[in-house]
Write a structure and sequence with these properties.
146 residues, mainly alpha, 79% helix
């Protein structure tokens, strides 16, 4: 039988990770002048948003409320994007930033999955969906590296 506490813990972490994926991708999309790159990023904004919404739905089924990323976390993301794109707004540079971000998300997702072995199979399936999305994102961004 699934452990509620572990399921809610996994979903809460997943919700925040997907939220940061949405926010970081939107920030970089807004800086790009490459239409093809921007369109690719919009697709990932939508897909991260779907994972975020699914995590919120599962959390509500457990009677839990999703907790948004903190103001400091969002400010740090914004500041990092501003500083990292001040001198280089190329698709290649932004793709590199996104690869680093999705790699961090993958590491956190695997750690969360390992830390919550008693989570409900629906939670684990959503974590797997997120991890697959991260891997696909990384592969797509590699195409923009020069």
């Amino acid at each position: 039988m699934a452990n509620r506490e572990e399921s809610v813990g996994m979903l809460s972490e997943l919700y925040r990770a997907a939220e940061m994926g949405v926010e970081g991708t939107k920030l970089l999309k807004g800086k790009s002048e490459d239409i093809r790159f921007s369109e690719k990023l919009q697709g990932y904004v939508n897909r991260y948003g779907e994972v975020k919404d699914e995590a919120a739905q599962l959390l509500s089924e457990y009677g839990a409320t999703p907790k948004e990323a903190g103001a400091m976390e969002k400010a740090g993301l914004w500041m990092g994007v501003q500083m990292n794109t001040m001198l280089d707004k190329t698709s290649s540079h932004m793709a590199e930033m996104l690869i680093q971000g999705s790699t961090m998300g993958t590491v956190q997702g695997v750690k969360s999955k390992n830390a919550h072995p008693g989570a409900d199979p629906a939670c684990t399936a959503l974590e797997d969906k997120f991890l697959n999305l991260q891997q696909e994102y990384t592969e797509d961004m590699k195409k923009f590296l020069v």
